[in-house]
Design a protein that fits this description.
The protein is mainly alpha-helical. It has helices at about 10-30, 40-55, 65-75, 80-105, 110-120, 120-125, 135-150, 155-165, 175-190, 195-210, 225-235, 250-260, 265-280, 280-300, 305-315, 320-325, 330-335, 335-350, 350-365, 370-380, 385-400; strands spanning about 405-410, 435-440, 450-455, 460, 465, 470-475.
């Protein structure tokens, strides 16, 4: 398949499209009054950047947090650094799509996916979040285009190898793509033998190194790939224990899934995951299916386009693990830009009847986008007050918390807005300086009583108790002596309040009471 060389005009136009996308996405943010680190897992990804800076083990794939940490080190806040990475990645998508389709031989039709990408609600959502979705989607598109171009370009084959090896560092979704890229390169690789052999060697020997392990052990054994490991274990487990995704479900859903596990109903499990995924992202799955059908028809209608269609179609298979485990719309919608590229590439070369049929189906899906954009804007606007509360709580803690204090609670997002003490969800037995963020009364502690020292939102009831909002509680602030008051935390202590980030203070010792209780006042 010949590769159309990109002219200077093509490159200028691709850059202009990316700048236009950046302007539109920034306009969306400013026009809707959005503020703060949006996204359901913003704290997980943002605070992992802090973990990387101090040398703590990452709890998520470290590629995106490493970029955030880089810009944070240059003086940007965590929120600004994370949103900057997401905005730039989302803005590059239209330019990369245009350049790739032009290289595949499309003419003016190469502008069509750009227009659709700019209007895609999922692209708009990713660009505003402190999460790696936009970056992962950009890498998937780049790898897909590189695979499509690899029959005629050894350089494109290398891009596919390196990109597929790096993608697991950004999202666990990238794990299947490593093997799929090997299949694509083996069947569509460069015509000369030595580049293909070198590419395959790089895939099977360098790609595991790129995800952080030596050749041999599976990447799913990494501590931050629990979701990918859960996807592989979902249909082999005999009990709900160890399946992390179940924590995201309601109690009734967990019970229903547990019954399927206990009875060994594997088909029932698969159907459960399929129904859930389709309910969360029905339009995204429809677009993936339409793209796969169009590419399949193209390979039958025009045999000379088979290699390019295979390159664009194979990465779509990385959505299949979402059927087995992942329970958020964005995990499936990551492939929407790549599906659009594959669909429009197929339509550009398909017969008129197929073009009309697929075009009509695509139009039906696109007509639903304005309504989704309106609901997305309303949803993102509701996150602003919460972000403002987190920023206020973080400011209070940054100003008031003594050196060496620990921070616990589920509201970790406060650490995105101000440098704060390390997180310790369980509490060291000898630490009486711990702060807890909670929207409900803190649990009893054998180390003393909790005292509310600050609150945002909510109000006081007739009995003086706080109602609503989020409070900061300190563990017995009047208690002395405080045995850990001058003890520095280990330098590699994590910032994330999860079990694997527990802070150990081995030199601190036990409280003064002989039975381990606090000393008397």
């Amino acid at each position: 398949m010949p590769v159309a060389p990109l002219t200077r005009r093509d490159l200028v136009l691709a850059a202009a499209l990316s700048l236009l996308a950046l302007s539109l996405l920034l306009g969306w943010r400013l026009g809707n009054g959005l503020w703060g680190a949006l996204g359901t897992d913003a704290a997980l990804w943002g605070l992992t950047a802090m973990d990387l800076r101090v040398g703590a083990d990452p709890l998520v794939p470290p590629g995106y947090p490493a970029l955030v940490a880089l810009f944070y080190g240059l003086g940007a806040s965590l929120v600004a650094a994370g949103l900057g990475v997401s905005l730039v990645a989302a803005s590059l998508l239209p330019g990369v799509a245009y350049a790739g389709l032009r290289a595949l031989g499309l003419g003016r039709l190469a502008a069509a996916p750009v227009a659709l990408l700019l209007a895609s609600p999922d692209l708009v959502a990713w660009s505003q979040q402190l999460q790696p979705d936009a970056l992962a989607s950009l890498m998937l598109v780049t790898v897909g285009l590189a695979l499509a171009l690899s029959p005629a370009s050894a350089g494109a084959a290398w891009v596919a190898v390196v990109g597929s090896g790096l993608l697991p560092l950004v999202r666990e979704h990238g794990l299947p793509l490593v093997a799929l890229s090997g299949l694509a390169l083996a069947t569509t690789g460069p015509g000369r033998r030595w580049p293909r052999v070198l590419a395959l060697l790089a895939l099977w020997w360098l790609a595991p190194l790129l995800v952080g392990v030596l050749p041999g052990p599976l990447p799913t054994q990494l501590p931050w790939s629990d979701r990918a490991g859960g996807a592989l274990a979902a249909l082999t487990a005999d009990s709900p224990e160890g399946l992390s995704f179940l924590r995201e479900l309601r109690p009734q859903q967990r019970q229903a899934y547990g019954r399927l596990l206990l009875t060994g109903d594997r088909l029932g499990q698969l159907g459960w995951h399929l129904r859930r995924s389709l309910a969360l992202a029905a339009d995204a799955w429809a677009l993936l299916g339409l793209s796969a059908l169009a590419l399949s028809a193209l390979t039958w209608w025009r045999p000379q386009a088979r290699r390019a269609a295979l390159g664009l179609g194979l990465p779509l298979l990385t959505a299949l693990p979402a059927l087995l485990i992942w329970s958020q719309r964005r995990h499936v919608a990551l492939l929407v830009p790549l599906a659009l590229l594959g669909l429009l590439y197929a339509l550009a070369q398909a017969p008129r009847w197929l073009r009309g049929l697929c075009g009509a189906a695509l139009l039906v899906l696109v007509l639903a986008w304005p309504g989704r954009l309106r609901s997305l804007a309303a949803e993102q606007r509701t996150e602003r007050p919460r972000a403002e509360h987190f920023a206020e709580l973080g400011g209070w803690l940054a100003a008031q918390a003594p050196a060496g204090a620990l921070l616990g609670g589920i509201f970790q997002d406060v650490g995105l807005y101000h440098p704060l003490p390390r997180h310790d969800p369980d509490g060291s037995p000898a630490d009486w300086r711990t702060y807890l963020l909670s929207d409900r009364p803190p649990p009893p502690s054998a180390l003393g009583r909790w005292t509310e020292v600050h609150r945002v939102g909510g109000e006081r009831g007739p009995d003086g108790q706080s109602i609503g909002g989020i409070g900061i509680f300190q563990l017995d602030p009047g208690l002395v002596p405080r045995p850990c008051a001058g003890l520095a935390l280990p330098p590699r202590s994590a910032y994330l309040a999860v079990d694997r980030a527990h802070v150990e203070l081995p030199a601190c010792g036990q409280p003064s009471g002989a039975d381990g209780s606090p000393p008397p006042r």
